[in-house]
Write a structure and sequence with these properties.
8-stranded antiparallel beta sheet; 2 domains; 6-stranded mixed beta sheet; Immunoglobulin-like; Jelly Rolls
Length: about 375
């Protein structure tokens, strides 16, 4: 009898274990998480810098003259997902498939559980010199929560979009404080010097920010990328400044702005600092990179790294209520020179940064501080 009961219990346990395994839900995520590392290494000769992966866009910068008609990018996906595309009207498995990227191509990632899918636009771009930056081109990211900005290359009619701009909006999304795109720290405004402009506002991060000692989020925009996956635990490292877009020796950055500081300045502990007054930040940095293995500077070292070669910064921006012109000359850092030979090897990166709170990267500033920027120009020698 005892032996029979033991066998029954073992059988029941086995059934329960099997049931647990069978009932484990399949993954519902459907994302491109990275470009296959082996593929990247095999194609380093044609690539400039790292791929730029957004929420629904993936772009590669490639050497001029590269044949875009037969490229076969390979992707890393969320667990269990698969990726497809349409060829001649038929859906085919697409990881590593050869396609014509004279114009951007669409891929669809399907979740492991089969219930979800997401479209990505993948582009291979020739570098476009940045000189005039007008902030007219933007769209909503794929979920419609906030806006993202990009530049256009008028010489690449089939593939004009250049995803050069980033902001911290993806990090602010974690707070749940914004109910519309205009309530994010970085948003468009119709009140530009010409057409639309960028409006940067220092916002409260609410109860979420208070729990993690990040009570405010400054509005910011910069040339580079934003890594939302590490934004909460490593906020300074999440802002990845700069792209390899240096096509000459930069002389100055010019533009227009207006600014109003918020009334109450607080530190990262949300303590009121009555002796402090908020101010805006606008600056640009040129720094050295390894042309074959691009490593960006971030919020912890963008001005202090020994790799910094040139810095341009708006001193004493004040609080002009009308559109005000500025010109920031680039100055060489002590002991540094600008090398044309390095430039021709894509050995420099450049970033242009604007923020509604100068100390916003350390979560100090005044809620309500507002910086408008428009019509930026980079002057090259």
């Amino acid at each position: 009898m005892t032996k029979t009961l033991l066998l029954l219990n073992l059988a029941l346990a086995g059934c329960l274990l099997t049931s647990c395994i069978q009932d484990e839900p399949l993954n519902a995520e459907c994302d491109i998480t990275a470009v296959n590392a082996q593929w990247l290494e095999q194609h380093r000769d044609m690539l400039i810098g790292n791929p730029i992966l957004g929420n629904a866009h993936l772009s590669f910068s490639i050497q001029k003259g590269t044949d875009r008609t037969r490229l076969d990018p390979s992707f890393t996906l969320t667990e269990g997902a698969r990726i497809t595309c349409l060829l001649d009207g038929n859906e085919v498995e697409a990881n590593g498939i050869t396609r014509n990227f004279s114009s951007p191509q669409t891929y669809t990632v399907h979740s492991q559980d089969g219930h979800w899918h997401k479209d990505y636009t993948v582009a291979f771009n020739y570098p476009h010199a940045i000189d005039s930056l007008h902030f007219e081109d933007f769209n909503l990211e794929s979920t419609g929560r906030y806006q993202v900005w990009y530049e256009k290359d008028p010489g690449d009619a089939l593939n004009p979009r250049r995803d050069y701009w980033a902001s911290g909006n993806a990090g602010f999304a974690f707070t749940g404080m914004a109910k519309s795109p205009t309530e994010y720290p970085t948003a468009s405004s119709p009140d530009g010097l010409k057409g639309t402009c960028v409006k940067l506002v220092t916002r409260s991060t609410g109860s979420f920010g208070s729990m993690i000692n990040k009570p405010i989020a400054a509005g910011n925009i910069f040339i580079g990328t934003f890594n939302a996956e590490i934004a909460v635990r490593q906020p300074l490292q999440a802002t990845e400044f700069g792209l390899q877009l240096v096509s000459g020796k930069p002389v100055a950055v010019e533009g227009h702005y207006k600014y109003t500081a918020g009334e109450v300045f607080t530190d990262k502990d949300n303590k009121v600092c009555p002796e402090l007054h908020d101010t805006a930040a606008i600056y640009a940095v040129v720094y050295e990179v390894d042309p074959d293995h691009f490593e960006p500077l971030d919020g912890s070292n963008v001005k202090t790294s020994p790799r910094v070669v040139m810095l341009a910064e708006l001193d004493n921006p004040g609080e002009p209520t009308e559109w005000t012109h500025f010109s920031m000359p680039f100055r060489l850092m002590p002991g540094k020179t600008f090398s044309e030979e390095r430039m021709l090897r894509d050995g420099y990166a450049i970033t242009v940064v604007a923020s509604s709170s100068k100390e916003g990267d350390f979560f100090a500033g005044a809620v309500g501080s507002t910086l408008y920027i428009d019509e930026f120009f980079i002057v090259w020698e």
